[in-house]
Amino acid sequence: MKANSAKQFLSLLAILHIIVGLTLPFLVNTRLFNYYNEQMLGAFNTSSIESLELGKFMLGILGPSIASWGVLFLFLVQHAYSTGSTSAWITMIVAIVGWSIYDMALSVYAGVYLNLLIDCFVMTLLLIPLLLTKSHFYKPSYE
Fold it and tell me: Whole-angstrom Cα distance, residue 63 to residue 9?
């Protein structure tokens, strides 16, 4: 994969994070999230309306954090691929792996396996272009 293609793809993913994050507080109350909400209720062994509403609220307030992560990631992608910054590349890898492992572990612990699948999918989409373009950031030095 060429560095420019990876930069464009990762930038698109960052922008999608921003859009999803900004709309998440509203999307949790739509039919799009019915299945996800049912999975959450089942994982926490409850069927009360109060629990569902609390779950929607908790998921909704996560939206701005997702959006801000997208903004920071977009900056890192632009900076890393424009400058070839090894430290920016490492920062992206550490951020993705750190988030995904922690989030996946919490998802398994809570029994929210749909979230685990989403995490695996997003982690893979983010890591593959970074790993395929590692040579853009690690150029051999001829001393």
Answer: 22
